[in-house]
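Thread amino acids onto this structure.
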């Protein structure tokens, strides 16, 4: 059996979709890699591989060979309790063994450890824990632990800024001199004395001055394009660097023989310099804008408390939040953040969970209730036991979920990837055709023209090379996905992958589970009716039924048990408890066989309801669930249980209708009760009396337009399509198969972890209005992606032919190319302000 692992690597140096394809292709070539996905916007590579064949260093070496880098961090730790050099060597080995650590160096004399690591795999907090596990103590060198990946990105942006400034220092005077010379605006000493009026020639040294200004731009500012082009060609591919290197080099090297006096003509140093500097400006602005697409993640990370007040051995100590251990008792005062996940052991308070769930009202907490890290304690002082710390906390899981979604590829991106793979080679062919076309077949130049056929063809070829922009295509989808998933996380909507974000917008039927989704999932006993077949009181009937339901986890059973407890009835332990899914429960209580269930259960056993038949019908028409009770196989009475409809349900369903969606309700309840609830909230279709295992089957029938419940007359269901894109919304364990079967599964976050794991979308709050928000966000994101792709394609479709026909100066072409990708990123950022 293979030891399959997943790694996420932060990649540096990627500029366009071709870079993504190159890194992806190189990683996939390694023996043992199952899958590799690279995202340009988040600049990360996610690799699934066989750990018995490959290690981290293999991937880093492969990425470096492809011409790119992996962002790394350096941790400087002060180590205490080192007794000699052997301790230093032992700790060095222990650190070097950690996954994600590239180098570890421990010096006994200075009592310091320097560790080079990959920040997406291991954190500084984990390094300090490893030091503690080895028997030493690691001290932080002041302040919060650095975000190494963010620092690497910041360094990259600063480097782009530095090169841009150097480029501007040399390019601006070069451009001004060139234009001034062409228009005759320079002082007389720049021109030769024998220049004819109207045809003024520059001094011989003028060309050398322009060359001196151009060299730093060409070979210092633009050096990374040459390196990138060389590595791309070495990897048998072509990227944006190849186009820029070819375009600027053509202008630069054509000008050299003219400067040396070997040829007559005009020099184009300013063209080469302006191309490089403008593209550098575009890349700098793009890098800054791309940084803003991940602001939602940074906001989530910023929610975390920095320290925790822990009680150990009866002593209250303030420790960094990373040092909190499972089982620690943590004290939180009013106005402070809950540092980690846990369970309240002492005190009562109201907790503001809005930053994670979007729920505006504070939630009451008492001993036994769970608390979530990063939420805000509003009122009382509480003590809680830490149950989840570090990467296990709800916040850490949410951040990972959002990062995974941002790193995944949406189906809509496939077309852009396919075009990008062949884009640069096609552009190079078009550029060469442009050169030969103008050189051999171009219209004759005027006699007094200051350029010849070769120069004209070269200029138009350079314009074609420089105008082509694969970057905009590569950024069109991932930037919108990053902003969309981040916007969702801020609103308490978590998308597991970008496919779910794209698919949610296509939904036309929404199926809602009744209990816990439309209703609060906290049913209460409303009526107790006794049969005339047995002489039994209401309290006695309730006591026997509650004794049977004592071991039940079903919400209806819990409601019966809760009512009996509230009334102070004496419950006894049931014997031979049996539960039948979708029917009811049965057990022996005080020597009597007691059965609590629905009509199906009674009919299967041939138990007559007698006068209870009409009572059951009445209760069901009032939207109550009738639980029948039989004692020794004789119908003894009915206990009616009703679940309160959530305040937001009616508004949420009306909102779905406004969006043109049809809404169905699925429940194990009987038809009449289900229809009564459906009318209250405005449901279009009822799927009633569905057993837990039948929910996924009903969803499947809806998808192909063959649901047997489509003919429910009272609810006017004539407008369902033959084939539907179905969203299923649920919160329970028995919803998991239906959530998985649906085209888009949405789990209510207040439900169980199983439901959340099965669903591609999780709504952190129990508010049903999150469904319409998720669908609206999906539609807005997909619209933005389509706008971006349209711009990216139409830009190239219009401007490449324009450059071929000679309508574009290479400098204007460079400006347009530089700002096309900035436009795409900026358009994606508009999503942040969209109201959902």
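Threaded sequence (836 positions):
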């Amino acid at each position: 059996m293979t030891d399959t692992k997943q790694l996420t690597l932060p990649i540096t140096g990627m500029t366009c979709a071709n870079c993504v394809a190159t890194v992806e292709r190189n990683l996939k070539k390694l023996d043992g890699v199952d899958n590799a996905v690279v995202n340009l916007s988040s600049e990360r590579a996610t690799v699934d591989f066989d750990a018995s064949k490959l290690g981290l260093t293999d991937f880093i070496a492969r990425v470096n060979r492809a011409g790119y880098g992996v962002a790394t961090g350096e941790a400087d730790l002060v180590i205490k309790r080192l007794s000699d050099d052997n301790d230093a060597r032992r700790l060095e080995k222990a650190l070097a063994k950690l996954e994600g650590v590239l180098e570890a160096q421990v010096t006994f004399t200075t009592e310091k450890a320097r560790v080079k690591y990959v920040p997406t795999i291991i954190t500084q907090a984990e390094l300090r824990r490893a030091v503690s596990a080895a028997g030493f103590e690691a001290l932080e060198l002041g302040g919060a632990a650095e975000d190494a990946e963010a620092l690497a990105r910041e360094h990259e942006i600063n480097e782009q800024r530095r090169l841009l400034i150097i480029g501007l220092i040399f390019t601006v005077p070069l451009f001004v001199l060139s234009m001034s010379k062409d228009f005759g605006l320079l002082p007389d000493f720049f021109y030769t004395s024998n220049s004819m009026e109207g045809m003024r020639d520059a001094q011989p040294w003028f060309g050398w001055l322009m060359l001196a200004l151009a060299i730093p731009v060409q070979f210092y500012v633009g050096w990374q394009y040459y390196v990138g082009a060389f590595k791309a060609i070495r990897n048998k591919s072509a990227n944006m660097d190849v186009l820029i290197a070819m375009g600027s080099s053509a202008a630069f090297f054509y000008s050299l023989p003219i400067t040396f006096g070997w040829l007559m003509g005009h020099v184009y140093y300013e063209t080469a310099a302006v191309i490089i500097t403008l593209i550098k400006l575009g890349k700098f602005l793009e890098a800054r804008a791309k940084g803003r697409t991940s602001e939602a993640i940074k906001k989530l990370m910023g929610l975390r408390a920095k320290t925790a007040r822990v009680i150990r051995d009866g002593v209250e100590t303030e420790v960094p939040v990373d040092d909190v251990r499972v089982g620690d008792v943590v004290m939180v005062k009013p106005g402070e953040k809950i540092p980690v996940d846990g369970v309240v052991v002492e005190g009562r308070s109201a907790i503001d969970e809005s930053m994670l769930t979007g729920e505006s009202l504070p939630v009451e907490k008492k001993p036994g209730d769970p608390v979530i890290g990063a939420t805000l304690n509003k009122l009382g002082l509480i003590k809680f036991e830490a149950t989840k710390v570090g990467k296990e906390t709800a916040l850490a899981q949410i951040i990972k979920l959002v990062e995974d979604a941002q790193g995944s590829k949406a189906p809509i991106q496939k077309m852009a990837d396919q075009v990008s793979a062949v884009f640069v080679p096609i552009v190079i062919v078009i550029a060469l055709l442009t050169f030969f076309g103008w050189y051999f077949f171009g219209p004759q130049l005027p006699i007094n023209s200051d350029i010849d056929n070769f120069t004209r063809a070269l200029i138009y070829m350079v314009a074609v090379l420089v105008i082509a922009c694969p970057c905009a295509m590569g950024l069109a989808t991932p930037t919108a996905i990053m902003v969309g998933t981040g916007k969702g996380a801020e609103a308490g909507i978590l998308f597991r992958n970008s496919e779910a974000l794209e698919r949610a917008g296509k939904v036309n039927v929404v199926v809602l589970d009744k209990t816990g989704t439309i209703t609060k999932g906290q049913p209460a006993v409303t009526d107790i009716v006794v049969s005339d077949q047995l002489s039994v009181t209401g309290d006695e009937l309730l006591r026997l039924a509650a004794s049977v339901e004592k071991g039940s986890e079903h919400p209806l059973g819990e409601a019966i048990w809760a009512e009996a407890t509230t009334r102070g009835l004496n419950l006894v332990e049931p014997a031979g408890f049996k539960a039948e899914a979708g029917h009811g429960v049965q057990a022996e209580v005080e020597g009597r066989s007691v059965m609590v269930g629905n009509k199906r259960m009674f009919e299967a056993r041939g138990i007559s309801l007698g006068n209870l038949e009409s009572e059951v019908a009445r209760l069901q028409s009032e939207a109550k669930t009738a639980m029948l009770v039989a004692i020794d196989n004789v119908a003894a009475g009915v206990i009616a249980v009703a679940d309160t409809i959530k305040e937001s349900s009616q508004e949420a369903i009306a909102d779905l209708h406004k969006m043109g969606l049809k809404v169905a309700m699925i429940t194990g309840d009987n038809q009449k009760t289900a229809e009564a609830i459906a009318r209250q909230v405005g449901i279009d279709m009822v799927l009633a009396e569905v057993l837990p295992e039948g929910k996924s089957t009903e969803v499947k029938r809806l998808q192909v337009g063959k649901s047997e419940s489509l003919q429910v007359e009272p609810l006017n269901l004539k407008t369902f399509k033959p084939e539907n894109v179905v969203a299923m919304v649920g919160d329970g364990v028995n919803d998991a198969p239906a959530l998985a079967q649906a085209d888009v599964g949405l789990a209510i976050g207040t439900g169980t972890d199983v439901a959340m794991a099965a669903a591609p979308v999780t709504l952190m709050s129990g508010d049903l209005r999150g469904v319409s928000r998720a669908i609206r966000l999906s539609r807005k994101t997909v619209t933005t992606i389509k706008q971006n792709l349209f711009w990216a394609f139409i830009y190239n479709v219009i401007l490449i032919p324009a450059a071929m026909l000679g309508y574009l100066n290479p400098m204007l072409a460079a400006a347009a190319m530089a700002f096309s990708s900035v436009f795409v990123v900026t358009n994606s950022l508009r999503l942040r302000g969209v109201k959902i």
